């Protein structure tokens, strides 16, 4: 059972990015106030870029406690960090290079490793070592950011891939036939153990999948499985993405 799901619709992608940045900061500050540290995972793709820019633009005025943040990634492409397709690279350019993070507390996924599955196991070990377990014994992130693909995928949990059914491992590598590439990704047991999930979705091209996930509850779509047992889902949409709701 989801503790709560909050859906907010903003008039433009920029306002949606601003709202998501606000939600991100309040979760970050609350975690640091309560536990002295915030453990969060960033998402990739194109949609979060403007939100990361917004966070970076406000670093000076916000005084957000970035030095008390551990940064992880929810998924990654099988490319080097300096590749244009790298989620780490994108987050570094748009946010991490412009915020006072402690780099020893930033954990990139090495999805470009020769043995991507061994790298996934190593990343899981790092999470199990660093992130305290929640009520169900699984490491409990304060915040996991997600985007939504037009096919209903979240992180790199794509339709019709084995990673969807993973029940034990927290981080896996997977080959994604529709991309012809491999990815590294958090699995649903880890995602659904989080205190907060922030899902930012904008654009007309996402309207149909948004309706299927948030209105029709189409469980054939991976995104419909986002259901944190002891957490809150914060969904931020723009009017274009919400037009069929
Ligand atoms: C990735 C993401 C992925 C993304 C969706 C939406 O590595 O691509 O983590 O899950 O959030 O594909 O991507 P857009 O924001 O580009 O539409």
Note down, in words, how this protein is organized:
The chain contains 7 helices and 9 strands. Helix 7 links the parallel strand 8 and strand 9. 29% of the residues lie in helices and 20% in strands. The chain is α/β, with parallel strands linked by helices and 245 residues long. Helix 1 packs across helix 2. It has a 6-stranded parallel β-sheet, covered by helices on one side. The site of 6-phosphogluconic acid has 15 residues, from strand 4.
Task: List the keywords.
245 residues, six-stranded parallel beta sheet, 29% helix, globular, three-stranded antiparallel beta sheet, binds 6-phosphogluconic acid, alpha/beta
